Amino acid sequence: MASPRDPSKRTPEIESWMNGADKLERLLDRDKFKAWGFVIYRCTYRSDSEWEEFIVRIHKRVEEYLGYYNGLDLVGSFAPTVLEDRSFEGATVISLREKFNEWAVTAIKEEQGIDPSHLWHLKNGRYRFFIMVDQEALDSVLSTPEDDIHEGFVRLVNAEWKPEELDEEELAERGGPGPEEEPLEGCTEEDVGWMKVCWGHSQMPGYLQLDGSFDWDMYYSRPPVIQSLS
Questions:
Q1: pTM of the predicted structure, to 2 decimals
Q2: What's the whole-number mean pLDDT along residues 19-31?
Q3: Does 28 map to a domain?
Q4: What is the secondary structure of the chain as a DSSP string?
Q5: Could you tell me if residue 140 is inside a domain?
Q6: Rounded Cα gap, residues 226 and 202, in angstroms
Q7: How far apart, in whole angstroms, are the C-alpha atoms of residue 39 and residue 129?
Q8: What is the Cα–Cα distance from 47 to 49, expressed in whole angstroms?
Q9: Which three-class secondary structure state does DSSP give residue 99?
Q10: Residues 101-131: pLDDT tens digits?
Q11: 3-state secondary structure of 193
Q12: CA separation (Å) from 171 to 164, 178, 213?
């Protein structure tokens, strides 16, 4: 077997581009990020113990992923900020997207020391996507074995998404309005701006895979499909 031309410093037997921890480190260095991870909106308050179990699973999964690549040095900067407010229970994706975008403008300066005007030039998705966990999602995760990362889901929301608005000329070029999908929170478009993703992929490797609209289009599946991000 040929020796790697660009061996990973963490796993010298393979190329650096094949090591998930190396890829994460390069991503953080590129944007000069001190903290990483998708923000989580807690939208269920039935049980604090169930919520704590969910958060433990998220952290454990990230540690397992990074540990596989000998990258536990990056665990300390993992910051899956949980935003909690009982008013979030029953909230729509639209309302949370508005709150998140307001939060992101100030958080990027407070957390990373980066001017908000640079927000849309970053490769990291921390301020462009967020995770939403309601009771349905929480039940789906906790009802599966702890080591089953493919069953159970969370909602991953694209904070940049906006409803498609076409003028008459654009509609004519398309041959008229497309077929309407079953409404999801009132949206009948194919892309509703959020998707169900496997809980075990939601932070890692999802954080490495999603950094903008192009990657969103590559992975997007309309609910109720549960999408893999590996």
A1: 0.91
A2: 97
A3: no
A4: -PPPSSB-SS-TTSBGGG-HHHHHHHHHHHHT-S-BS-EEEE---S-HHHHHHHHHHHHHHHHHHHHHTT-GGGGGGB--PEEE-GGGTT--HHHHHHHHHHHHHHHHHHHH---GGGGGG-S--TTTEEEEE-HHHHHHHHTS-TT--SSSEEEEEETT-------HHHHHHTTSPPPPPPPBTTB-SS--SEEEEEGGGTTTTHHHH-SSHHHHHHH---TTSEE---
A5: yes
A6: 11
A7: 8
A8: 5
A9: helix
A10: 999 999 999 999 999 998 888 999 999 999 9
A11: coil
A12: 11, 9, 22
Query: What value does the mean pLDDT of the chain take?
Result: 92
Both tokens of residue 135?
Answer: 């009771």
Q: Which residue has the tokens 């991503």?
A: 27
Shortest CA distance to 116 belongs to which of 131, 98, 103? 103
According to DSSP, the β-strands at 129-133 and 153-158 are antiparallel
Domains in the chain, number? 1
Q: Three-class SS of residue 103?
A: helix
- The structure tokens 């807690």 sit at 42
Q: Are strands 153-158 and 194-198 parallel, antiparallel or unpaired?
A: antiparallel
Asked if the structure places residue 20 within a domain, the reply is no
Is residue 137 one of the residues assigned to a domain? yes
Question: Residue 167's pLDDT band (boundaries 50, 70, 90)?
Answer: very low
Contact 203, 58 (CB under 8 A): yes
Per the structure, the complete domain to which residue 64 belongs is given by 35-162+180-227
